[in-house]
Amino acid sequence: MAIPVLGVVHVNVNCSDLARSLRFYRDLVGLEPLTHTNPLPQEGAGFGLPGQVQWDAHLLHDARGPLGPAVDLLEWKRPLPVSKPASEPNQLGMFRLCLSVPDVDAVYAKLVAAGVPCLSAPVLAPIDPAAGLSVRFFLARDPDGTALEFLQPNHVAQQAGQGPARSEPKASEGERARLLHVNVNCSDLARSADWYRRVLGLATLGRSAPGPVDGAGFGWNGPCEWQAEFLAVQGAADPFVIDLLEWKTPRPTGAPALAANQLGLFRLAFMVEDAKACHAELLRHGVTTSPPVWLEMGPEVPIAGLWAVFFRDPDGTCLELIQRPELRPGA
Length: 331
Hints:
The protein has helices spanning 18-29, 104-113, 189-200, 275-284; strands at residues 7-15, 32-37, 42-43, 52-61, 70-78, 93-100, 123-128, 133-141, 147-155, 178-185, 202-208, 213-214, 223-233, 241-249, 264-272, 293-295, 306-312, 318-323. With 331 residues, it is mainly beta. It has a domain at 93-249: Roll (2,3-Dihydroxybiphenyl 1,2-Dioxygenase, domain 1). Strands 1, 2, 3, 4, 5, 15, 16, 17 and 18 form a nine-stranded mixed sheet that branches. Strands 6, 7, 8, 9, 10, 11, 12, 13 and 14 form a nine-stranded mixed sheet that branches.
């Protein structure tokens, strides 16, 4: 039986300076910090870290608020952050966090004016040529070098004499960036997609295999090629998507982040009702996992704490199950 996943809780982004990164994600990207977790030191075994650990973090949301997906922007205090974010778009594991925006050119101009490194100006990329679906996108780097993708959907109408390509109408200026998907690079798409469907019960929303395309948007000279499957929690009305992608040209490289305190994208967290039951189900699937661990969230969060389980996908990307927490009495 698949894990009964309720939804995506957050994507963890480790940073070296929380105040600096908070200004970037709040003031430039447009996400809103709604929860501050700043607990006392606690046992780090669940994270795979020895001894006592401590962090300071903000959960940042788009317009959907606390019931929607979040960015878990986290600075490790003990142990300190190590290494650096994934540098290459074809590195295995989580490489980029994607946000949809109403006007990708305006966002690009804003980030460039603020001195944010961008791999290219916005470019048009096909997603599903047969359906006439493409996106205009660009990649930027946060203060530590974590890759962010900003995109605007672009539905092409060039079939059967329908005329030239046209973009979707731009949203109003008041609309904010919206957390859309996280890219998870894998070495074998068929194997990984089957694993996410079979173990986590995710549903396939669509696929992308457009053939060779210009790699400029990814910072590459020459063509690139991928095959991808878009997965989400079954029945979600407004899903946050896992963009599970196997690079064909160039081939995948490197490995997912190993240490929980490594800078950049590290883990993707899902909500469940019963962490202990889900842990037992992971074991039945043959998945190597931590036992359920109790995590304190600090005095500013109105819950006593939460149960969490940490495990890895077939390539070693870190995933997390979080049991739905209960409010502290009187909170």
